[in-house]
Amino acid sequence: MDKIVVQESPVGTFTQLATGQSFTFGDVQHGWQVIELWPDQDLAAIGIFKVSPATVAAGEEIVSASVERVDGVVKQVVITQPAVLKASARQLRLAMNATGLRDDIEEYVASQSRDVQDSWQWTTEFESTHPFVVGAAEQLNKSPEELRALFLLAQTF
Hints:
Helix content: 25-40%
Strand content: 25-35%
Shape: rod-shaped
Distance between the termini: 36 Å
Structural class: alpha+beta
Oligomer: single chain
């Protein structure tokens, strides 16, 4: 089943039912077959709802999810944040070449401590949220959106 099945009890409180789980309405316990066989309107009358999972944009990850009634409709509501993007050193350098950023990055790294220079030279995989990466982007006046775009481009190489 591609839907999330929830039971509302009390009103405004939704609990997800596991596939195959029976549930109680009033004094009557119902088997899972009821969910598969009854029409949605009959299920809604006893507080059972089949909810489509929320769509998450590319490059985002879910921080929290809940089921709520929004404008009279029971739906999954998610809070997202940008996903940590990863790219190999090769991918990142190719993306920098393609965007014309490579020389600026190399110049910035050369002006930094030996630890930063070693990190640049020897790190095999970079994460978009690593302090070194974020700091370099800030020093080059690149927005978080531009940094994400660079990593997304890098992942295509």
